Amino acid sequence: MTITASENTLSTAISTSPGDSARTRSGNIRFQDVRVTFSAANGDGVLVTDDFNLDIPSGQFLSIVGPSGCGKSTLLKVLSGLVPANAGTAHIDGLPAGRTRERIGFMFQRDTLLPWASVKDNINIGIELAHVAPDKAAERIKELIAFLKLSGFEHHMPHQLSGGMRQRVSLGRLLAYDPDIFLMDEPFGALDSQTKAAMGRELLRIWSHHRRTVVFVTHDIEEAVTLSDRIIVLSPRPSKIRLDIEIALERPRDARQLRKSPDYINYVDQIWREIDTSEKEE
Ligand SMILES: Nc1ncnc2c1ncn2[C@@H]1O[C@H](COP(=O)(O)OP(=O)(O)O)[C@@H](O)[C@H]1O
Ligand SMILES: [Mg+2]
How far apart, in whole angstroms, are the C-alpha atoms of residue 232 and residue 235? Predict the structure, then answer.
């Protein structure tokens, strides 16, 4: 197999990952009988989910789809410890979710880049959080910038970049930080379809080398089928898992080729049917 320049850059970027030498990578997620309620402005309780159970094995790429407001973002926040479960537990490798914050990286639909910091400095935040040795930091930033095709834009500010480029920088920061678990909340949801497809390809390229656990929230069913090992479909609030399906499509996947595959079409169709049925039952 020939290794292209960018794959080579990526493997270097990963082999110098700060955490790998120090410990064995893992990222098993377990929700057990989780209940989350919020109090509404009028004093009523909003039950987001109750008796929610889900196991995600380390290294799995799992997507969550479901109607707006059903609790997808809340589940990610429970994992990161930002929202406490009112009952039940969320564990990462056997530890309560709030105690594993440093092992988790978040990416949102809107980039969370510092507007006054350059591309390089924004990626450097991830490097600093990961405690990369200062003599290795510059090299690592350079590798990530090359890998994410941002070379030449190191000193640009976020407002000088397109939406897709800003999300590449966010992804760069996430990779620089190198968490065990990637929590991605509609990360490409605001991008045009072409840029979204390109970002999906990048993410798969990273994931195929990295194999971190990914929990990916999306409205886009085709995107979910293209990327995931497994998809869960949630009902409207209080959210229950309506469908839990393994996506047994061969990897590496090519989005354009997949569209012609009967298996791919069946998965997309099955998920749509579940969502339609769920809406009709409302
Ligand atoms: N901090 C909060 N306080 C009160 N209600 C909230 C809070 N966060 C989310 N909610 C409510 O919880 C429900 C689930 O929200 P969310 O998880 O953001 O849904 P989704 O990401 O699936 O669109 C919604 O009804 C939302 O209004
Ligand atoms: Mg959300």
Answer: 10
Q: Is the CB of 74 under 6 A from ligand 1?
A: yes
**Quick one: which H or E segment has residue 119?**
helix 119-129
Q: Kindly give the distance from the C-alpha atom of residue 71 to the centroid of ligand 1, in angstroms, as a whole number.
A: 6
pTM of the complete model beyond 0.85: yes
Residue 72 Cβ inside 6 Å of ligand 1? The answer reads yes
Ligand 2 geometric centre to CA of 252 (Å): 29
28-280 fold: Rossmann fold (3.40.50)
Nearest to 156 by CA among 130, 195, 191, 121: 121
Atom 1, ligand 1: residue with shortest CA distance: 38
Give, for all 282 residues of the chain, the pLDDT tens digit: 333 444 445 554 544 444 444 456 789 999 999 999 998 888 888 999 999 999 999 999 999 999 999 999 999 999 999 999 999 999 999 999 988 888 999 999 888 899 999 999 999 999 998 888 888 899 999 999 998 889 999 999 999 999 999 999 999 999 998 899 999 999 999 999 999 999 999 899 989 988 999 999 999 999 999 999 999 999 999 999 999 999 999 999 999 999 999 999 999 999 999 998 888 887
Q: How far is the CA of 35 from the centre of ligand 1 (A)?
A: 13
What residues contact 89, with CB distance under 8 A and at least 6 apart? 30, 31, 32, 33, 34, 96
Q: Please identify, by atom number, the ligand 1 atom nearest to the C-alpha of residue 77.
A: 17
Determine the residue of 31, 52, 70 to mutate for testing ligand 1's pocket, defined as the one with the most ligand atoms within 8 A of the Cβ atom: 70
Surrounding residues of ion ligand 2, Cβ less than 5 A: 72-73
Task: Determine whether 179 is exposed, middle or buried from the number of CB atoms within 10 Å of its CB (0-12, 13-18, 19+).
Answer: buried
List the domain boundaries for the chain: 28-280
